[in-house]
TrEMBL record:
It comes from the Eukaryota. SUPFAM superfamilies: Cryptochrome/photolyase FAD-binding domain. Belongs to the DNA photolyase class-1 family. PANTHER family: CRYPTOCHROME (PTHR11455), CRYPTOCHROME DASH (PTHR11455:SF22). This is CRYD protein. Residues 105-120 have a biased composition (Basic residues). The keyword Flavoprotein applies. Keywords: FAD, Flavoprotein. The keyword Transmembrane helix does not apply. Residues 2-98 form the Cryptochrome/DNA photolyase FAD-binding domain.
Length: 133
């Protein structure tokens, strides 16, 4: 399935570029975390990056962090068959080192944690309360 929603995609690209609407200071889009949360096994990445087909599981999100033996086994040579990263953001390191390097028998799938629904938030926060006139 290919997902395409013009408004949602453009909004997300703007947000990722740091020019979207967000009241929080220093907000950054963490691509590694999003990849692990929503494409835990890397199937979507493999669809669009066939040169990384040989990398198993969630390791596909951070090929530069793999050791040379794992890269060689996957048929990937950084800088030749797949580019070196242009930038590695410091906030990514937490997600690279959080899981074991190499082949994990249980690749990460689904969200890392279940979001907490706070009382008074969500759609009811805006539409269900009586408002003073």
């Amino acid at each position: 399935k290919v997902d395409y929603d013009v408004c949602s995609n453009y909004g997300n690209w703007l947000y990722s570029a740091g020019i979207g609407n967000d009241p929080r200071d220093n907000r950054k889009f963490n691509m590694i975390k999003q990849g692990l949360d929503y494409d835990g096994n890397g199937d979507y990445v493999r669809l669009w990056l066939p040169e990384l087909q040989g990398i198993k599981g969630a390791d596909i999100h951070t090929p530069w962090a793999l050791n040379s033996a794992a890269l060689s086994q996957a048929g990937v040579t950084l800088g030749e068959t797949y580019p070196q990263p242009v930038v590695t953001a410091p906030e990514w390191s937490r997600h690279v080192t959080q899981r074991p390097q190499g082949r994990s028998p249980h690749p990460r799938r689904g969200p890392a944690r279940t979001p907490v629904q706070r009382k008074g938030r969500g759609i009811d926060f805006y539409f269900s309360r009586k408002k003073d006139v």
